[in-house]
Amino acid sequence: MTDNGIPAAVVVDHIDQTIKAIAQLRANHHGNASSMQRAVDRLTAHVARPRFLGVITGVVAGWVAVNLLMPMFGREAIDPPPFPWLSSALALAAFYVVVLIFATQKREDQLAQHRELLIMELAIVSEQKIAKVIQLLEESRRDNPMIQNRIDTEAETMAQPADPESVLVAIADAHEVPAVT
To answer: Does residue 56 form part of some domain?
Structure first.
């Protein structure tokens, strides 16, 4: 039971190991980041918040208001309309935000690529295990005197592990794209 009276979820061992492996993959990815990459990630996280939009809006509104009100008080505006300094500052800020987003996206793409490779490897291993289970079941069926022996061509075919390169070529042919080997 948890503190709020809701029963704690029971996680079987192999699921728990999988969750820990995924968490470790993410921790390794973050741990391998340079201090500059971590700084870029933090900056991008701040820029991605709605508060950042509010701050930018406030700064722009304040800049415009100050420059419009200064002549009313007998002073010359620092950046009179059409606000060329403000435009330049916003263009520079937009450039930096784009670079931050690209840098962060590149790191996230690396993590996604690691996940994708892990999924493919697990799929291949799972397929091989399933083929082995089918082989064992067929062997058990043949060896059991209580079960009538028969030829099951579908089971024999399924008991053969797939060749990943052949599958890749078949997928490429089906989608009319060149195979990557």
So the answer is: yes
Q: What global pTM score does this model have?
A: 0.57
Taking each helix axis from N to C end, the angle separating 84-143 and 50-69, rounded to the nearest 10 degrees, works out to 170
pLDDT of residue 147: 83
Instruction: Note whether residue 61 is domain-resident.
Output: yes
Q: How many CB atoms lie within 10 A of CB 134?
A: 19
Determine contact, residues 37/105, Cβ cutoff 8 Å: no
d(CA 39, CA 42): 5
Q: Which domain holds residue 99?
A: 13-174
Nearest to 161 by CA among 118, 119, 129, 123: 129
In a domain, 180, yes or no: no
| Residue 153 located in a structural domain | yes
What is d(CA 122, CA 92) in angstroms, rounded to the nearest whole number? Answer: 45
- List, run by run, the mean pLDDT of 10-residue segments along the chain (181 residues): 64 78 83 89 90 95 96 93 95 94 89 85 86 90 85 84 78 72 57
Structural domains in the chain (count): 1
- Predicted confidence (pLDDT) per residue in 119-153, tens digit: 888 888 888 889 899 989 988 888 888 888 788 88
